[in-house]
Amino acid sequence: MSATVHVFGGAGFAGAQLAALVDAHPYFTLGAITARGDAGRRLVDLYPQYRVTDALVAPDPALARAGDFAAVCYPHAAASELVAQLVDAGVRVVDVSADHRLRDAALYPEWYGFTHARPELLGEAVYGLPEAYRDRIRDARLVANPGCYPTAALLALLPLAGRLADVVIDAKSGVSGAGKTPTDAVHFSSVTENVTPYKVLSHRHEPEIAQELGVDVTFTPHLVPADRGELASCYARLTDAPATQDDLFALYRAHYDGHPFVEIVERPPGMRAVQHTNYAQICPLLDARRGRVIAFGAIDNIVKGASGQALQNLNLMAGRPETEGLA
Amino acid sequence: MSATVHVFGGAGFAGAQLAALVDAHPYFTLGAITARGDAGRRLVDLYPQYRVTDALVAPDPALARAGDFAAVCYPHAAASELVAQLVDAGVRVVDVSADHRLRDAALYPEWYGFTHARPELLGEAVYGLPEAYRDRIRDARLVANPGCYPTAALLALLPLAGRLADVVIDAKSGVSGAGKTPTDAVHFSSVTENVTPYKVLSHRHEPEIAQELGVDVTFTPHLVPADRGELASCYARLTDAPATQDDLFALYRAHYDGHPFVEIVERPPGMRAVQHTNYAQICPLLDARRGRVIAFGAIDNIVKGASGQALQNLNLMAGRPETEGLA
Amino acid sequence: MSATVHVFGGAGFAGAQLAALVDAHPYFTLGAITARGDAGRRLVDLYPQYRVTDALVAPDPALARAGDFAAVCYPHAAASELVAQLVDAGVRVVDVSADHRLRDAALYPEWYGFTHARPELLGEAVYGLPEAYRDRIRDARLVANPGCYPTAALLALLPLAGRLADVVIDAKSGVSGAGKTPTDAVHFSSVTENVTPYKVLSHRHEPEIAQELGVDVTFTPHLVPADRGELASCYARLTDAPATQDDLFALYRAHYDGHPFVEIVERPPGMRAVQHTNYAQICPLLDARRGRVIAFGAIDNIVKGASGQALQNLNLMAGRPETEGLA
Amino acid sequence: MSATVHVFGGAGFAGAQLAALVDAHPYFTLGAITARGDAGRRLVDLYPQYRVTDALVAPDPALARAGDFAAVCYPHAAASELVAQLVDAGVRVVDVSADHRLRDAALYPEWYGFTHARPELLGEAVYGLPEAYRDRIRDARLVANPGCYPTAALLALLPLAGRLADVVIDAKSGVSGAGKTPTDAVHFSSVTENVTPYKVLSHRHEPEIAQELGVDVTFTPHLVPADRGELASCYARLTDAPATQDDLFALYRAHYDGHPFVEIVERPPGMRAVQHTNYAQICPLLDARRGRVIAFGAIDNIVKGASGQALQNLNLMAGRPETEGLA
Fold first, then answer.
1. Contact predicate B325/B24, CB 8 Å
2. Which residue of chain A has the CA closest to C44?
3. In which residue ranges of chain C is CATH 3.30.360.10 found?
4. Is the ipTM of this complex over 0.95?
5. In CATH, what class is A149-301?
6. Cβ contact D232:D297 at 8 Å
7. Largest CA-CA distance found in chain A, in angstroms, rounded
8. Between 3.20.170.30, 3.40.50.720, 3.30.420.10, 3.40.50.300, what CATH number should domain C3-145+305-317 receive?
9. Is the pTM of this model over 0.90?
10. What is the pLDDT of residues A178-192, one digit of tens each?
11. CB A207: neighbour CB atoms within 10 A?
12. Residues of D identified as active-site
């Protein structure tokens, strides 16, 4: 018994790792891995560490058939059309791009610079954070895989949703989050021994976080000299704060009870504790003196922030154990 | 014409670099460099990059004579006694330790775990941030050199002092800030590919920042995989905010007019832009939508955050140009 | 069906990872994990990334019973006594230390500074490089797990053994090879942006490499700013060289046919291709113009260079598939 | 009194730093800084750390006048024409490219893929290693600034020239050596936690090293996860070896007596000791057991390996102290 998963956009960091995860999965069968520029090359030639010898093929929606699964790892704006074609053809899709994350179609022109061609799919798409939408993901035709920063920030703050105010999210990401395309900004000589804030007040993950938290946020991403990993340091005031640190821990533990990839830790996590895993480590601390909560969320931006979460969603969609192929 | 500067505690990162800066200074003469454990070794054997061949000697206050200058680069609690002896002997002192930074003696037992033996010196000591206390530093017998985090955070926020509220300071520091002593936390294998919050809600630089800003702050330091450099990302609400981003830049430029080591920049600075220099790059951004200011401050934690600032203070105390030996 | 593996010295980098590998192994059961200083703490508190919640216990040979397996991950000189006790008690041992790697007892005083108390065990111990001694390892009571540098260098050169001359091995290692103890040399600020030759002409892995190659070698290790990984760049003249590059590749492929962890690659490997795996990537290149072979060997120093290779040996000793728990 | 130095190709790593060095030089005046793609931008916008506010201008040989100096920091093949135009116009030139380093014009088609248009300039050009050709550089119209690897390797081996055999040079370079253009190979995610041999047996610095040593060499460069710095680990047999290690040190000290930028050190140097300086640290070790010398040479690849050495040459050409603006 098996089901086929196709990876559209398999030459990028997230797509390649997802292909490797699917290839090693006990239930899923790896179908096509597509890539535009690198079609014809083997995945192992681009990513020797994954040891996947399948050749990349040119993208074509017809590679996937009704009943198959597909993950679309395209840049934003580029995914929308393919996703629609696949969904229309009866393929169940996890869209790893940003093209179906925002429910309000009006946000796409404002934040992403394009008008969404199929806004009804925005209504149908389920936001693919299993810790928030697990049941709806199981039956979804289309899952919008969250951004990496939103994954870290939301897991850190969702237990407090509804009573948050004055939210500041100061996030630090490894360079892989910027993608595989070489630019001045990701040149080793630009990054090493450096920490740089970027896209301050203009990063596209801001409306996604705000949508899911239901509150406006100040979101400041920083590039740090690491490959993998992301840490969101979140600051907020609460309208109804837990009385003690223990109460705060208890609230978080209860909230994430039964969610296998969330680890509530009592000391602020470093990125290393979750690198190359699908785990999120979350540490909420009570700043009683100033009436604040500081909640830290650490993930691997390419795994829990992209490919691993996509597989977690695929597991749910296929009725498989949520952790299969991810432990 | 010359004056002698002795460096007490010259084997640590800050003391060693200060010795090197003094050694290359056109006016100052390098006197004794002291070290407990490493006495007898040459500084060049510990720090080949500084090419200072003087031997380290055992510490003794009598090495410095009335009229000399001394910089005391000891751990906190250890500096207080020596500083008092030197001041009493007519030596003008820059205390690079934390032992004279807090004006309220009651804060020492609370934050540093010791009772200050000479509280009257806390009243006399001038807080050695030249951008705030330049005139008082010139005549001081005792200058309390600021901590590295306070330097970055204060330079970022002082132009707004008096109208700040809800201050959050999320700071990132290179590992050299943790000092030269090898520990698990500074092992390369602990630090590389990692970002770790530490001493959250308990870091000793918090009361120092609060003292100078005149307002309570939430301060969260993070260790990043870099040697040198520090970035403070500061978030605050203003009781009386500038109307526009241009007004905000203008306010900062006016505030730091005539201060040679502060650079107001229009894009958030990376740490690399100031590494191995005494410059601070400051970038204030208006988050108009949420009524906040985000102010970034980047420094080299060992130069502007310690040794370079000490030399800047020594220049002022000796009536020399503020930038001498630092450009 | 199962067998128990005890890890003596489980607080170090190799021991901890071995404990984690055994813990996740489908056949082996993890017995005691011992540690002197850290007894009582859980392994997860020292190494959050491994998620092994077992508590460390004080070392005691009686923890292991006849028929059990034990891996001894002690510093050299410290392992010898415990290994002998275990072997005498009928425990089958993989000694991850250097104490049974050299067959000539006279080399221990010369290179390691101690006289071996049980030289007859040197004769019995099988050198635990499965690619060279697989059959003898299956039945061994005592396996001497190779050093990390010898693993990389031997895998690169063994196919040419018997016709090698003028061997130079220029090796580069990540910092984890220096072990967990914090020292000046492994301080992040010493390592970052640095490459340093160390123990030139005096590194203890030299006689081990020479023993297995049957020829004298010049061996120069370098510390590089990475956590994991090792690259041996090996230069040699051949008394009977293959005529062409293709012949050289064919010779290597034939030599390692049936060895699942050796990958012969046609482009010189980077360390990243094998990090966190038990694979070795080997690339032999013919320098026809100068009558040399340049053979590169890349491994993860803690996995194939220590813990993974130990598990590979345990698999063989227990009659399990060589790759079990390592793929 | 002053002389003007123009920097052609000032947007690259070497050109930009050279412009900054010239800008801060007590004698030289910085003339034009040219750049094709970045003309119109200020140098400080590309390299904030240099704080040079001059605008880059489009390249034009007429920017330099007879009697001026020019440094040409172009890619190989691209420099030749401009260098000839400048020399013809009476401008004294340091060619930082490779276009005038090889005296044998036949090597250009073979190694660089182009036919040299002005082979007579190859005869006239002085190889700009001041430690070898100081006197000829003083009067040269055209100086060919050495490659970074040749600088490190030659300084390590030149004291033994004439009696070298079996030379192997295993070199490690920081990423800045690959230049400013973003590529997959210099992406932070490719470089961090990695060491990679590259251009094995085909790197263009090989014939340059062989030319100056007068002996064939096996040269293997490796990319290491650092920005700046280069270490050449050189292995050779000697036809007439010094009897003792002390003799070897004495030979090197005598050879470099009076050369201010060469430091003979008794322990193998790390790259950090010379980073951001024009110094070379050289350590020759006698491998008496195997009749070899191992000579280490460490430099900053962009300073002593390019821009600093160019300024050292300009100082000599202008009759200035060799160390001016470089100490």
1. yes
2. A273
3. 149-301
4. yes
5. alpha beta
6. yes
7. 60
8. 3.40.50.720
9. yes
10. 999 999 999 999 999
11. 22
12. 148
